[in-house]
């Protein structure tokens, strides 16, 4: 009831009570319980927008997501005993708000967007209009996650996330497995093509600008990216239409570095950690004299010293000036729908990381259930796709 009230207070339509409850029986598996829910919905003609799943432990999470996403096509929201306690007993508003934001995204809602009538930064609005909105920009987030040294039976997972609307608020994803420890994406053409096709299906027009934020790449791999992944994107565009040649901007996002910045004027520092303000850009003196790079601290330092993100612009056909690109990047850091604050990296990159994490649960669940014995390189042709956010907010 507390969550329902919170959802309604944030504009999400929710009924007073769920359509029905399903209690797990003795010796039931997660798959058995979700199957009964799916069967009842099919039998009674119930449109199931969301299934709340109360877990005894986080160990069941992988199986819930695997069965819900792949086997039965059910959207699930898992809650642990501690979460239930925070909501029911402690009445923690922050916990309830976090759950409400997740629910809204899962049922197709938009949590964050730019209120254009209230923006007083003319430079930001010009950058968004000229390079995103008017040119139907497709903003791509790319990430690859690898198994640990002891997880020799697991593959690497590559995800490509892109917006499907012209306001860059709704993101969908394509995800594939590939040989372990391989950073360059083997299925780049197919994954990019999926993002292009879906963008065209939704908007009726192809993007004129494509901005790619690539995560997880070291400086020693920049040339490989330019020689392999950038041409793969070009081939995907050409396969889409022979004369289709959008303007491409390719940016590498780096979070793992040792650079930290502090305010010369202590009065300008923020918080107990005396951090630089969110939105601070450093693009001189400490940046490379030969490359196009900059640091952006886009988040508020809540605890400890803020670590800015470093951006390397490897390729830019749109000829954006530095201020425009930095403004767009900072704007994208406000679109992560699970958080009411700006985050440290652009939302498409964050979503790409989440997609990889979800796909990892799918792989682990398949291994644990015996559907596959272990990963082999032949499995790299397998693929699935997953949604990060859609449009209207409505729940039943």
From TrEMBL:
InterPro entries: Piwi, Piwi_ago-like, RNaseH-like_sf, RNaseH_sf
Region (Disordered): 375-396
SMART domains the record matches: Piwi (SM00950)
Superkingdom in the source lineage: Eukaryota
Entry-linked Pfam families: Piwi
Domain Piwi: 50-364
Biased composition (Low complexity): 381-396
Gene Ontology terms for molecular function: nucleic acid binding
Name this protein carries in UniProt: Piwi domain-containing protein
Organism of origin: Trichinella patagoniensis
Gene that produces this protein: tag-76
């Amino acid at each position: 009831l507390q969550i329902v009230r919170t959802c309604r207070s944030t504009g999400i339509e929710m009924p007073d009570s769920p359509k029905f409850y399903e209690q797990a029986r003795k010796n039931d598996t997660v798959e058995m319980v979700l199957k009964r829910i799916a069967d009842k919905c099919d039998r009674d003609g119930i449109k199931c927008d969301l299934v709340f799943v109360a877990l005894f432990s986080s160990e069941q999470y992988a199986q819930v997501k695997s069965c819900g996403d792949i086997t039965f096509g059910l959207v699930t929201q898992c809650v642990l005993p501690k979460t239930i306690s925070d909501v029911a007993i402690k009445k923690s508003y922050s916990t309830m708000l976090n759950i409400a934001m997740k629910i809204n995204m899962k049922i197709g809602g938009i949590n964050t967007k730019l209120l254009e009538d209230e923006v007083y930064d003319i430079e930001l609005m010009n950058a968004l209009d000229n390079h995103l909105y008017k040119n139907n920009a497709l903003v791509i987030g790319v990430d690859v996650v690898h198994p640990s040294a002891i997880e020799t039976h697991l593959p690497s997972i590559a995800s490509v996330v892109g917006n499907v609307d012209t306001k860059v608020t709704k993101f969908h994803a394509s995800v594939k497995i590939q040989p372990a420890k391989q950073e360059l994406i083997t299925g780049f053409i197919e994954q990019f093509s999926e993002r292009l096709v879906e963008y065209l299906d939704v908007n009726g027009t192809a993007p004129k600008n494509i901005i790619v934020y690539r995560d997880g790449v070291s400086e020693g791999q920049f040339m490989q990216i330019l020689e392999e992944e950038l041409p793969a994107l070009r081939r995907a565009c050409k396969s889409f239409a022979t004369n289709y040649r959008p303007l491409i901007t390719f940016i590498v996002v780096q979070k793992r570095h040792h650079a930290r910045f502090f305010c010369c004027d202590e009065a300008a520092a923020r918080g107990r950690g005396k951090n630089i303000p969110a939105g601070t850009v450093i693009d001189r003196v400490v940046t490379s004299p030969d490359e196009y790079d900059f640091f952006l601290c886009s988040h508020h330092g809540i605890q400890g010293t803020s670590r800015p993100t470093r951006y390397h612009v490897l390729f830019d056909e749109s000829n954006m000036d530095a201020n425009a690109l930095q403004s767009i990047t900072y704007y994208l850091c406000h679109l992560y729908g699970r958080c009411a604050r700006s985050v440290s990296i652009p939302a498409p990159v964050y979503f790409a990381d989440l997609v990889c994490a979800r796909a990892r649960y799918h792989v682990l669940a398949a291994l644990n259930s015996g559907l596959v014995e272990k990963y082999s390189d032949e499995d790299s042709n397998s693929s699935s796709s997953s949604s990060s956010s859609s449009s209207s907010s409505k729940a039943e």
